[in-house]
Amino acid sequence: MNILVLNSGSSSLKFQLIDTDLEKIAADADHRLARGVIERIGSQGLIRFENGAGKIFRTAQPIRDHRAAIDVALRWLVSEDAAIAEVKSLADIHAIGHRVVHGGEKFTRSTLITPEVIEGIEECIDLAPLHNPDNLRGITAATEIFGAGIPQAAVFDTAFHHSMPESSYLYAIPYQLYRRHRVRRYGFHGTSHRYIAYRYRRLLSIPKEQVDVISLHLGNGCSVAAVKSGNSIDTSMGLTPLEGLVMGSRSGDIDPAIIEYLMAKEGFSIEQVDTLLNKQSGLLGISGLTNDMRDLLAEEQEHGDRRARLAIELFVYRIRKYIGAYLAAMNGADAILFAGGIGENSPEIRSRICRAMEWCGLRLDEERNSALPPGAEGEISAEGSRLRAYVIPTDEEMLIARDTARLVARAEVPGW
Ligand code: ADP
């Protein structure tokens, strides 16, 4: 079954075409036929497509909206240029899986999209005003293009963390605010943490109940999840993705009193503070240079830039702090799992995070760590390390495609 996975952002559309079904899932034999990203939707769109053979196509053209972006992607997918043997017309695309950021308390698993589900996603807009409307635009556009007949599924970033206990997800503010407005921690990157935990389970051939890990998704956005007996029991992001680790341009944890203080001192509006914390903070805010870890590492190494070093130190320190906290929350764990652009590609950052962790049984094998090729899966802790460390490249799109295939086949969708 060829499944189109759509991830609709505010001005971008990422897609993948994945061939999967129940047998392929069981045999781990599903595979990607193509992928692409269209950026700057609403103006001169930047287009990058890649077929299964790794051939890359780049163009630029005006892209009005998400519907136009999906149209362009589909025209390429069925074209001779793309050379995808399995897809010759739209009829060869059998289902669509959408990434939806916020499922609130309503959606605890992936689900087939019905008018009621769309209403439910709309109800969550208050919780994710920056994300859910874009996800809905993707769903509407796909329905317009393919018609109402094609099965579509919604896979929620929040769903995996549904298993968090109250003590993890409640904020210590008056309880009626949770009752009235559902103000609580939801957590994000759930599809990624779920995939990483699944790969770990496969790697070790153990049942879900034996998965006791701390999983680190370190990309532009960063989060950490405490996964105990296979379930997320805590995660660093909260009501929104702003809480927790230091990220590319998000602050992560701060004292909320800073907001009022800055409004008074700098004359900021609440919108300006919001932009400051989401777009101008984190690695970018501290370094004053960039939100890109690769560039910061280069700056630090080549020019000894003090603020680049400081940004990296804050980034690493916050992660180490969360690892310590989650080890306590979980009564210890078996492994730490690294994923995301930084986690998968930077032996340097992995090494700094794991430094002097012998106290909790973690000993990194520096050689294994630096020898692991980018994008590869493998262990990086030393022989006999009590707390082990692995790099496990994430693949959220594969999980979205798999859940979609399961839902279309009316098979059970695992909570993880
Ligand atoms: P997103 O969250 O947008 O999907 P990614 O998961 O692609 O982002 O992660 C992007 C981050 O990964 C950037 O900070 C980038 O610099 C970093 N990164 C990618 N490759 C490397 C590398 N080789 N060394 C250090 N950081 C890297």
What is the element layout, followed by pairings?
Layout: E1 2-8, E2 13-19, H1 22-27, E3 31-39, E4 44-51, E5 56-62, H2 66-77, E6 95-100, E7 111-112, H3 115-123, H4 132-146, E8 152-156, H5 166-169, H6 175-181, H7 190-204, E9 213-218, E10 222-228, E11 231-235, H8 257-266, H9 270-279, H10 282-287, H11 293-303, H12 306-329, E12 335-339, H13 340-345, H14 347-354, H15 366-371, E13 378-379, E14 388-391, H16 396-408
Helix pairs in contact: 2-4, 11-12, 12-14
The structure holds adenosine-5'-diphosphate (ADP).
Q: Level of helix content?
A: 25-40%
Sheet with the most strands, sense and barrel status: 8 strands, mixed
Order of helices and strands: EEHEEEHEEHHEHHHEEEHHHHHEHHHEEH
Per DSSP, the total helix count is: 16
Average residue-wise pLDDT: 96
Tell me the span between the first and last alpha carbons: 21 Å
Total beta-strand segments: 14
Strand order of the largest sheet: 5-4-3-2-1-6-8-7
Strand content: 15-25%
Apparent shape: globular
Rounded to an integer in angstroms, the radius of gyration calculated over CA atoms is: 21 Å
Bound molecule types: adenosine-5'-diphosphate
Question: Which ranges are low-confidence, i.e. pLDDT below 50, for 5 or more consecutive residues?
Answer: none
How is this structure best summarized?
By secondary structure, the protein is an alpha/beta fold.
Please explain how this structure is put together.
Helix content is 39%, strand content 19%. The chain has 16 helices and 14 strands. It has helices spanning 22-27, 66-77, 115-123, 132-146, 166-169, 175-181, 190-204, 257-266, 270-279, 282-287, 293-303, 306-329, 340-345, 347-354, 366-371, 396-408; strands at residues 2-8, 13-19, 31-39, 44-51, 56-62, 95-100, 111-112, 152-156, 213-218, 222-228, 231-235, 335-339, 378-379, 388-391. The strands form 2 sheets. Strands 5-4-3-2-1-6-8-7 form an 8-stranded mixed sheet, sandwiched between helices. Strands 11-10-9-12-14-13 form a 6-stranded mixed sheet, with helices on both faces. α2 packs across α4 (132-146), α11 (293-303) packs across α12 and α12 (306-329) packs across α14. The longest helix is centred in the C-terminal third of the chain and has 24 residues, at 306-329. The model has no long low-confidence stretch (mean pLDDT 96). The site of adenosine-5'-diphosphate has 13 residues, from α11 and α13.
